[in-house]
Every structure is written in structure tokens, then in C-alpha cells.
Specification:
The protein has about 160 residues and is an alpha+beta fold. The protein has one domain (about 5-160). It is built from 5 helices and 6 strands; from the N terminus they run αβββααβββαα. Strands 3-2-1-4-5-6 form a 6-stranded antiparallel beta sheet. Helix 1 (about 5-20) crosses helix 2 (about 55-70) and helix 3 (about 80-95) packs across helix 4. The termini are far apart.
């Protein structure tokens, strides 16, 4: 089963799998011996797949192939692959062992443990997208898109002395 430090690669590949299915409302349950992944498809039907160790090994191999450039490694901003990758990076950084991840309208809710202590966290989509963009820039990727919010436009005008 995935260990702390492996979530980013596994979740990116899992997200790519889910993107290919046009999945929504994803839920991931770590059952120890396997991961149960549920998602909604069009017309509201719920699908489920069990990922055992060998399946996760295949996901890890996919992640390695993405890093080597053998598979498409730059999913579009806001895709499940990129969002789950970023979420996995946050979990790896904070050394959180995942119990459940549930997608909702605004992001992901997570339960897990850190040093055998229960944790519950929420991750907002816009925050994950911002973190993802920052990391892309640090990796030498494309510059982040210009912030067009009212507050950002106002700040630019003030900075320009208008």
C-alpha cells in the first residue's frame, strides 16, 4: 500500500486514470490491503474500483514514465491528475498517512494520521491550483497566468500610481 512519501506519484497517476473516465465526486478509502476508489460518472451512476498493491505498482510505473516524458506529464490546470498530485505532495510534505479523501464542491476533505494521531483536513481547489502553479514555475514550467481578480487589478493600478 502507498506509504508516506509516495502519494504524489500515485495520486497523479490515479487522477490521470480518473480524468480519462471524466470522473467527478471522487472518494478514496485506504483499506490497508487495498484502496477503494469511487467516483460519479455522467447520469449520476457511481463506479468503484479496487486498487491492490500490483495495481498501485502499475500506477507508480505510470508516474515514472510521466517523469521520463514517455507519457503526457503535464495535465491541464484543474485536472484531477494535477489536483491529486498537488494534494499528494502536501500529504507527503506533512507526513500524513491517508485514511479517506472525499471530493466535494470546493475541494477535498481528508482523514488520516500523523505520528499515530488522527487528523482531519480540508483542501480548497483554488489553493491546490495556486500551489500547483507555484510548483510548476519552480520546476521551470510556464509562468502563472495573470491574476485578473478585482483586488489584483486594483493593486496593479495602485502600484502604477494611477
Amino acid at each position: 500500500m502507498p506509504q508516506v512519501g509516495e502519494y504524489a506519484d500515485i495520486f497523479r497517476a490515479l487522477g490521470r486514470f480518473l480524468d480519462d473516465l471524466n470522473a467527478a465526486s471522487v472518494q478514496i478509502d485506504n483499506q490497508g490491503e487495498y484502496m477503494a476508489v469511487r467516483w460519479n460518472r455522467t447520469l449520476g451512476s457511481v463506479q468503484e474500483r479496487i486498487f491492490r498493491e500490483r495495481d498501485l505498482d502499475a500506477l507508480r510505473e505510470q508516474a515514472r514514465a510521466m517523469r521520463r516524458g514517455l507519457l503526457k506529464a503535464s495535465p491541464s490546470r484543474g485536472s484531477l491528475a494535477e489536483l491529486l498530485r498537488t494534494l499528494g505532495q502536501e500529504l507527503d510534505r506533512d507526513k500524513i498517512e491517508v485514511s479517506t479523501i472525499s471530493q466535494n464542491e470546493v475541494g477535498f476533505d481528508l482523514t488520516g494520521t500523523v505520528d499515530r494521531r488522527y487528523v482531519r483536513r480540508s483542501y480548497v481547489l483554488s489553493e491546490l491550483e495556486a500551489i500547483s502553479t507555484q510548483r510548476m514555475v519552480l520546476r521551470g514550467g510556464a509562468a502563472p497566468p495573470e491574476d485578473t481578480s478585482y483586488a489584483a487589478r486594483f493593486k496593479r493600478l495602485v502600484d502604477q500610481g494611477r
